[in-house]
Each structure stands twice: as C-alpha cells, then as structure tokens.
Amino acid sequence: MNFHNILINWYLQNERDLPWRKTTNPYLIWLSEIMLQQTRVAQGMPYFFSFTKEFPTVFDLANADEEQVLKLWQGLGYYSRARNLHKTAQYVANELNGVFPPSYKELLKLKGVGEYTAAAIASFSYNEAVPVVDGNVFRLLSRYFDIESDITSPAAKKEFTELARELMPKDNPAIFNQAIMEFGALQCVPKSPNCTICVFNDSCLALQKKKVDVLPVKSKKTKVTNRFFNYLILEDILGNTLIQKRTAKGIWHNLYEFPLLETQEIADFDFVSKAVQNEVFSAYTIIGIEECSHATIIHKLSHQHLHIQFWKIKIEEIIEKGVDANNLKTFPFPIVIYNFIEKQEINC
C-alpha cells in the first residue's frame, strides 16, 4: 500500500470533527485558515464560531468597522491578520462581487494570503491539485524520507512542495492535504511522538536511523528583543481614564492602550513619578501615584518580550474625552491590557 493510501486511511479513522471541514465555501475556509496561522485549533475554534455568527458572509465582514473586527479578534494575536482579513473581505465583496478567486494563482493575489493559505483554499474549496506545506508537512516528510534540508530556507520550501506534489493523488487532493496536516498535528508531533503506534513505523527512515528527535532541521533562531512598558492609568475625579490608539507601525497597530512610558529597563517608583509629573502629565495636578501590581508582567510575542508595569495616577482635573469603566471594555485592546482591566486591577 503506498504512502497516500496509508495516510488517507489513517485520516478517515482519526480526523477531528472541525466545522471548516464540513464545507467547501471558500469564505469559511479562508476565514479558518487565516485564524489558524500560528494558532492552535483549540484556541482558534471559539473565534471561528464568533466570526461566522457575527459575519456569516464576506459582505457582512466587509461592512463591519475595523474596530469591531479587532475587538472580536482580541486575544488571538498577530493582529495584522485581522486587519488584512478585513481589507481582503472588502476587496472580495466590492471588487469581486463576493466571489473568491477560483484558483491558486488568483488567490495568491489577495492581501494576507500566502502560498500555504492559497493552496488550502484552492484544494479544499475547488479541489485543485496543489499541495499545502506547513510545519506539520515539513515535519512528517522530513522524518519519513530522512530529509536534512533546513526548512527555513527557500530551497527547502520548494523541495518539500515538489515532494508533496508527487505524493498527492491528483484525483483527490483535498483529502490528501487534510490528511497530511492532520497526521502532523496528531501523530507526528514535534516532541516525543508515539512511534510505536504510527502507521508508518515500518517504513519511516528517521525512526530506523533514530533521528526522529533531530528532524526537521531548523537552524534559524528568532532574536528576541526585551522592551519595558509602563502603562499610566490616569483617573480623574469622575473615575474616568484616558486611552490612546496605537497608530504607528509595529505591534498592536490600531489597538488601544493606556498612555505609555517606555523605558530601557524595569522602572522604579521614583523614576516613574518624576517622569509623570515633569513630562508625561505635567498639565495635570497629580494627587497620587501608585503601582497597580506587585510583579512585572512578562508578555511574550514572537520577537519581543514585553516587561509590563501598570501605574495609577490620580488627578484633580476632569479628563477631556475621558472614558468610563463601562465603555472601556468596548474598545479593542491587546489581550494583556484587556485581562488587566477584566481583573479590575485598574482599581489597584
């Protein structure tokens, strides 16, 4: 029995019951694929249900306000995905009359749609014979065929794509693509896979050569930058506070935050107090400054570790366009700030 038959038979017995597998609607498949980029299925599932309930068609998503989209996306991370999702929905709705491009090459032209996502939509919606190659596929193929190519290199991406194309049955590419991704997600997992129950354990070269733990080869390491954020929570005599929108390029674009004092290291009370009174809020009469948490929160992003402290600053004046506690939660925040608000630590 050849590779794809073994794989597909395994899939038919082990596939997870996922909502986007019950449709060929390109809108729903596109939505799920964008959400699952760098996101686990368990984490992405509730968001998929929320989005499809709020925006059942691409027209509904296109007509939404960006802040509404970002608010619904809150906590899923990599917020550029949400912004691109919204822009692409507008393009498909307004320029393509709500019809998604029916081919891999045309799908690639959509904002936020790369080779993997385009291949997934093309095969799952239109049964086009184009292979999907993600981390799960790299891992399975590198182990099964003992391929030591560095998967971060463009040459390796091409090599694995061509190999997957050769293995794919041209009459049923959709189920093959689902199967190969599912196998990597459930069976050929990154760490300590249970090879004793694997359907490929009599033919996997990595298992035979005791190389399962070293494949795939990934030499490129992410350089992590440490940043130190001090969020300044202004509170006036009405209990209102001040927030701002992050409009600069970089993390959390178009999300909201409290006024930010970024420092070179973890700041102490004296430093923050002087900065607040002499620079940041010099126009206000400050009657109290208090640190809101006993320990610095470390929020880890893919390339940055954010060391976050929250400070409450009470003032005598009324904040112009101040936001009250009820309205505060309606704005889209980075999840680390939203969680802080939810726990009512804003009250210190």
Structure description:
By secondary structure, the chain is of the alpha+beta class. The protein is built from 15 helices and seven strands. β6 and β7 form a beta hairpin. The model has no long low-confidence stretch (mean pLDDT 92). It catalyses: Hydrolyzes free adenine bases from 7,8-dihydro-8-oxoguanine:adenine mismatched double-stranded DNA, leaving an apurinic site.
Write the layout of secondary structure elements.
Layout: H1 3-14, H2 26-35, H3 41-54, H4 58-63, H5 66-73, H6 80-95, H7 104-107, H8 115-126, H9 135-144, H10 154-167, H11 173-186, H12 205-208, E1 225-235, E2 244-245, E3 256-257, E4 260-263, H13 269-280, E5 286-291, E6 297-300, E7 304-315, H14 325-328, H15 335-342
Protein name: Adenine DNA glycosylase
Family: Belongs to the Nth/MutY family.
Cofactor: [4Fe-4S] cluster
The gross shape turns out to be elongated
CATH class of the largest domain: Mainly Alpha
Q: Which regions have little confidence, pLDDT < 50, spanning 5+ residues? A: none
Number of helical stretches of at least 4 residues: 15
**CATH topology name of the largest domain:** Endonuclease III, domain 1
Radius of gyration: 24 Å
Order of helices and strands: HHHHHHHHHHHHEEEEHEEEHH
Q: What do we call the CATH homologous superfamily of the largest domain?
A: Hypothetical protein, domain 2
- Overall structural class, as computed from helix and strand content, comes to alpha+beta
CATH architecture of the largest domain: Orthogonal Bundle
Number of strands: 7
Beta strand %: 5-15%
The residue fraction in helices comes out at: 40-55%
What is the CA-CA span between the terminal residues?
A: 65 Å
Instruction: Provide the domain count.
Output: 2
Overall average residue pLDDT: 92
Largest sheet: 5 strands, mixed
